[in-house]
Amino acid sequence: MTCKQTCEFLDAYVDRELDAASAFEFDRHLAECASCRKTLDQYRQLHDRVREQLPYFQTPADLEQRLRDQINVLDDEHVPPARKAASSRWPAWAALAAAALVLFAAGFLFQMSERPRASQLLANDVVASHIRSLLANHLVDVPSSDQHTVKPWFTGKVDFAPAVKDLSAGGFSLIGGRLDYFDNRPVAALVYKRRQHVINLFLWPSSDSDSKPRSMVLRGYNVVFETHSQMTYWAVSDLNAAELTEFLRDALTY
Question: Given the DSSP bridges, would you call strands 214-218 and 197-205 parallel, antiparallel or unpaired?
Answer without folding.
Answer: unpaired
